[in-house]
Design a protein that fits this description.
- This protein is of the alpha/beta class.
- Helices cover about 35% and strands about 15% of the residues.
- β1, α3 and β2 form a beta-alpha-beta unit.
Amino acid sequence: MNKPADAKRSAQVSDKVVTGDQLLPRAAQLGRPMVFTNGVFDLLHRGHVTYLHEARRLGASLLVAVNSDASARRLGKGPNRPLNTHLDRAMVLAGLEAVDLVTWFDDPVPLPLIARLKPDIYVKGGDYRIDQLAEARLVQSWGGTARAIDYVEGCSTTDLVDRIRGAGQKAAFLDRDGVINLDRGYLFRWQDCEWVPGALEGMRLLQAAGFLLVIVTNQSGIARGYFSESQYQAFTDRFVDALAGDAIRIEKVYHCPHHPEGSVAQYAVACNCRKPLPGMLHRAIRDLSISAVDSILFGDQPSDVAAGRQAGIGRVIGVRTDGHRNLAPVEGADETHDTLLEAASALLGQSGRVPN
C-alpha cells in the first residue's frame, strides 16, 4: 500500500546526497545565507538532531559534510569506528528536515571543500574553540561568519557505543593545581612547580589499576595576560615529561585558556570548556573513547565537582587543597581525602578495583 508515495519520499531523501561534479551546481541552488557544518555523525542521536536544527535556524539552508570512512578512522575514535559507512550516515542525515544537502569528504578537515562551496556561515560544536579552527578562519576570509553551537549535554555517540558494547576505557580525570602540584597561582615557570605530597604515588596506583590519567585544568592566566599560550605549552611539555620520568604516563592534558574578564581579546570570551562547565571532559571522553560512568574525577574545587557531574562521571572525589588537613571537604564531592594517594588507596582498596 502507498508504494508510489513511499518511493517518492525515498527518492527525495536520496536526492539530498550529492557528490562529485553535481555538488557545486546543487549547492548553488540552495538559499542564502548557506550554513555549513561537518562531522562524523555516527549513530545519530538527540544531540546531533538538536545541533543541526539550531544550525539550520542561522541561515536559509544547511549543507552537512560527513567524514568519509577513511577520514573518520584517522580521527582515532576507537576500534571498528565508524560503525556506519559514510553513505549510510549521509542518508540518515538527509532524512532530517533541517538538512538541505549532504556530501562527504576524504581530507582530515574539509578545508578544500569549504573553499569550493564558499558558505556564508560555518558552524561547529561548542566543545571546539571556534577561534582556533582553520575552517572558521577560511569562511571569515570572504566575509562569512563562524558560530559555535552547544550539543545537548550528556549525548555522545562514544557513550552510546560503550553502553552497547559494555566497554570503554576508564579514566582518572585530574585537576592540576592543588591536586598534582601545589597551587602557586597562575603557575607557568618550571622552577615554581612542586608536587603535592602523595600525588605521584596516587597517580601510580590509579595507573596500575588500569585508569588512563587525563588532566583537565582551567588556565585563565592566558586570558588575563599573565603568560602566553606558548609559555603554558612549554611548561606543560616539561610537566608531562617529568611525570614520565617518574613512570607516570599522562594520556592527555586539556586546558581552558578563557575567562570572560580577561585582558587578551581572543581569550576574553564565555566558553563551555572552563570548569564548572564540562566541555573539556566531554572532549576527552570523545577523543579517548572513555566510558564516563566508569571513570573518576579528582578535584579540589566545587567547580571540578560540578564539571564532573555534568559530564556524567561515575564518581567525583575531593582532594583538599595542597593536602592541608584543616580545610573543609570539597563541596558536592562523593567523598574528600587529604591527598591523591589517600583518595586512590581508599577507592581501590586492596583489590586495586573500584568497588561497586
